[in-house]
Amino acid sequence: MTSTSSSTRRRAAVERLEAEHRRARAELFEPGELLGAPDDEWSAFVTEGDRYVRHLELNDYPTTSDSCVYCGQGLSAQAVILIQKYRTYLDDALARQLQEAKQALMSSQLRLGSLSIEVLKEHARQTASANSAPSYAPVVGALIADLEAAFEATRSGRPLTDGVELAKSASTTDRLLSAAATSLATTLADLNSQREDRVAALTRKEAELAELVARLALARHLPTIRTAVGSHKRAARMDTLTRSMSAGIQRSLTNLSKQASEDLVNRNFERLFAQECAALSAPTVGLEFQGRRGQAERKKSVSQYRPSAVLSEGELKVLAIADFLAECRMTGVKAPIIFDDPVTSLDYLRMGEVCERISRLAATHQVVVFTHNIFFASTLLGLRDDRKLGYTFYEVRGNDEGKGFLQAGGSPRKDSPAQVGKRITKAIELAKQAASEPSLQDALVESAYGVLRTWCEAFIEQDLLANVAQRHRANLMIGGLDKIKLDRFEGAKTALLPLFDRCSRFMPGHSQSVEQLNIKPSLADFERDWAAAQDIRKAYISA
């Protein structure tokens, strides 16, 4: 608890400063200047007004242009002087000393350091309701009453009248409480020791329980563990045995592997290879199957010679295709099969056989063919048409940016009268747009005659001769002979030949004499020739 003598000194200082402050307040204002006596209520009223001024941040207050913060009316010169005296009174050093002394007195009021009086009251209630009250219980109630009286006196600023008696009572209670604290500390130490012993015992029992559970689990799984350990030992012995295998054992395995390969693989491959060679008319070669280090291998020979020593490049290529197809068929997997220009180095007699085999293969597999051989592609497409097989055609193109751009299409470029007719219509439109440049228009008309000559060839091949003989086709379509209209053939031929001669005369691809070069057809001449060509085709193909 704080010192009572210190509280008495501070209370005396507050009383002395209050008296001096009241005297100074009475001397500051002249008689009649205030409506009433400058008592404590008046001082509180002035203090609140000054606090409101500071809240409004009126640093230059008061002036004659301001309003009174107490009544809201305008300030006269006399009122300004009065309010300035108010502020002088509040700013006086004596007033600050009085405020500081009051704060010091409030801080010196009686209080307990770390114990609340409410805790003491709760403890007194608990000991009173207990069966066996402690030895210090009778004096606790009196001590609480004395403390509350002392707290109230210091809180209200009154001096303590019986501080000596209070100190004696507190000293007696302190001795009793010290003895009780010593006893409780001893009891607490005993309890802590018992707790530690019990925790240690619990730890030992838990360890014994865990060991017992582990032993029970081991007893359940012991047969399985013994089996696993035995298997591991056998595996280790087998690994050691495998590492120590001799070359003789390896040769024995090679012989066994060779025999199994001959029975299960080589005979099947030999049969499939013979079928592919027969389908491709490949030369007859012998197959020799060899084994090395447990792996099956094979090689081909012609009377004990290497095939490359006695066969042509085309024959070797056919044998390679037969080997490849037999290998693909032997797995039994219907995976896509890719050919990269398989007819390179082949003559045209073998090309047809290769085309026929690829066409039959496309009935059971997805086949991808890369080629730049027009005859090979045309033959494949012809077989596709005969067997009505589905296909997708891509053309690989290049431009200034690079090579290898794929463009989907129906087939390789094939001029038909309808397709070439679109090109002729486009050429006429360009020539009309160049009417302001005669030389350019003449060049476009000559180029258009070349396209018209192509139209005549397509008309002859596809309409007049009914596709019986087609370019890049190895065979004649004899069935198309019935489609040739013999009754109209002579008239179409008679009308078409002069037109074809005119196209050959004016097209830029043919050289002409100087006299003929100066005879240039006009756009109107070309339009008449184009109309005549359309009339010839219309008259021939009409029903």
Automatic annotation (TrEMBL):
<keyword id="KW-0742">SOS response</keyword>
<dbReference type="GO" id="GO:0009432">
    <property type="term" value="P:SOS response"/>
</dbReference>
<dbReference type="InterPro" id="IPR027417">
    <property type="entry name" value="P-loop_NTPase"/>
</dbReference>
<keyword id="KW-0227">DNA damage</keyword>
<protein>
    <recommendedName>
        <fullName>Protein CR006 P-loop domain-containing protein</fullName>
    </recommendedName>
</protein>
<keyword id="KW-0234">DNA repair</keyword>
<dbReference type="GO" id="GO:0000731">
    <property type="term" value="P:DNA synthesis involved in DNA repair"/>
</dbReference>
<dbReference type="GO" id="GO:0006302">
    <property type="term" value="P:double-strand break repair"/>
</dbReference>
